[in-house]
Structures are given as structure tokens and as C-alpha cells.
Amino acid sequence: MPVRLIIDTDTAGDDVNSLLIALLHPEIQLEAVTISVGNVGFEQQIENALYTIEMAGRSGQVPVYPGCATPLLSEWVAADYVHGRDGMGDSFFPKARQRPEPKHAVDALIERIHAAPGELTILAQAPLTNIAAAVIRDPSIAAKVKTLYIMGGTYFAPGNITPAAEYNFYVDPEAARIVFRAGFDIRLVDWGLCVRDTVLDDADLDDIRRLDTELARFYLQVNRVVRRFNETVGIRGVTHPDSIVAAMIADPAIARGWQPCQVDIETRGELTRGASVITPAEYAGVEKRVEKPNAQVCLGADKARFKALLMDILSRR
Ligand code: BDR
Ligand code: CA
To answer: How many domains does the chain have?
Structure first.
């Protein structure tokens, strides 16, 4: 049985790769896409999701619900300098045929979770604003989601937006704190893992280029700005923070172990706002703070297996 999945996304750069995996991998049944504030302008992110669905040959088959266009309390911080002004490598693709749904993402999430209790997995690959708003409105959804995969935070690694914080948690730290305290069954993939285990370098990108498919060309175009940006921060290649999680959902063997932890988010620090504070459960005896782990934190990823999965997806069209 394929995993029944909803992706909450701020569609730009690697969010697109993640959507392609979810749209085309036989082990995933993507049932809806919800759009959160994040990487680039909100309307552009909606268009990017719709265009990606069209590129995957799935136009009209997966609904896209616009959600919260601003963080709960923070000022929005864009990441267009990472992904291009349109979030798609400065490609400015035409509008897709499919249009967004009139229903708000928060309503769609709550309705769909209640309609299939215990059956839906969610991949949250954006600031956690929509998920927090949904669980504030209806706290009972936390126990009804099968697993909530989250891309965000850092685990013993530097951040990517400040030295202490990763982008998704930095943009909406209050939302992240609410979600980690809500009682979901959470699996967390942090930015440090992405830098260690998911960078595809120029030789890998040449392998993708040689596929010579429409999707391989699309991937290279969407990721060309992030490839250049990464060079300026000492990363030689394209990072895959969101698509590594989609790949783990499709093929759990890509994840190299999970550690039960207590995860909380700093919301007030002068230098550390948005930082993830992660305590492994094994420290519980020493650190009385850890009474009950609230997340499993991923310890690593099998890069070769991930690359093979991604190339398989990109060779499909
Ligand atoms: C996260 O921030 C965004 O720019 C990416 O889409 C990813 O979800 C990485 O920190
Ligand atoms: Ca994202």
C-alpha cells in the first residue's frame, strides 16, 4: 500500500524535487498540496506547485490549497536569493492549466485528517505556520495524523539563515514550537544532515544531465540558482533538504537511523531565535528536562540510494 501523503510546502528549489518524487514514486499517493509562507512570494509559490504538478504529467489530479501567507508573529523573511526571484532558478515559467482550490489549506488539512484518521502522513517542508494554525484550531488532529515528517532545525550543526537557526524554523519559530508541543508523531530531518548527506556535486549533476529527459532538464533549470548560491557558502553542489525526506517516505531504507529526542524551539533568544534545542532521550537521566521524547530525529541518509531514487524519478518523463 502506498503512503497516503499531504505535502505542506513553500514551493521553490528543492521543494519542487520533493513534489516530483511524491507525484511520481509508486510508493507514495500524494493526496493534496498545501502552500505555506516561505521561500518566495506567496502567489508565486502556488504557481510553482501547480507548474510542478503539470511537469509531472499529473495536471488536475492533486489539489493545491493556499494557506497562511504570513508567519504567526514574525516578519516574513524571503529566501529568493537562494532559489531565484521566482523560486525556480529565475525561469519565470508560464502559468499551469490547473488552478488553486478556493478552500484554505488549514480547513483542507483538518477535514482530510478527520476523514482518514490514522492514515495520512504529512511532509512539512516549509515554515510550520499552516500546521500550527490547524492544530490550534483543532488540537484533536495531532493524534489522527499517522506521521508528521518535518524538514527543519539543526542538530549539532550551524544554521543556514543565522548561525543558530535553520530557515523553516527561523521564519516562524512560534509555529514550530506549537507543532512540537502538540502531540504529533514527529520525524525530524535537520539542515545538518542535508549538508552532510544530500549534496549532489557537479559530477552527480552531469549524470542527471545525461538522462536527457524533460524532468532532468527541469531539475537542472530549477536548481541552477541554488547551485551558484551554495558555492558562496562553501557547499559544492545542490542540497536536497526537502526531497531527502520525500525519498525517505518512499524508501525508508534511505534513512540511516532515528533517535528519540526532546525537541523545542527558541522563540526569544537575541542571537538564537528559531534555533532548535534537541536533547536525545538517552540524556534523560542527566537532564531532567527530557521526560518524554516528542520526536525521532534522523541520524543520516544514504546518499547513493537517494541519488538513484531521484534519477529514477527524473528519468520517468
Ligand atoms: C529549507 O529552507 C528552504 O529554503 C528550503 O525549501 C528548505 O525547506 C532548508 O533550510
Ligand atoms: Ca521548503
So the answer is: 1
According to DSSP, the β-strands at 28-35 and 186-189 are unpaired
Edge-to-edge strands of the sheet including 28-35?
A: 64-66, 28-35, 3-9, 121-125, 147-151, 186-189, 295-298, 258-265, 276-280
With a 6 Å cutoff on the Cβ, whether 165 touches ligand 1 is no
Residue 185 sits at the vertex; the CA angle it makes with 249 and 244, to the nearest 5 degrees, is 25
Task: Please write the tens of the pLDDT for every residue from 275-303.
Answer: 999 988 877 655 555 567 999 999 999 99
Residue showing cell 519565470: 92
Mutating to test ligand 1, I would choose from 11, 20, 76, 125 the residue with most ligand atoms within 8 A of its C-beta, which is 125
What are the start-end ranges of the H helices in 56-96? 80-83
46-96, pLDDT tens digit by residue?
999 999 999 999 999 999 999 999 999 999 999 999 999 999 999 999 999
Range of the domain at 184: 3-314
* CATH number of the domain residue 264 falls in: 3.90.245.10
Beta strands 276-280 and 258-265: pairing type? antiparallel
Whether 10 is a known active-site residue: answer: yes
State which residues have CB under 5 angstroms from ligand 2, the bound ion.
10, 15, 125-126, 242
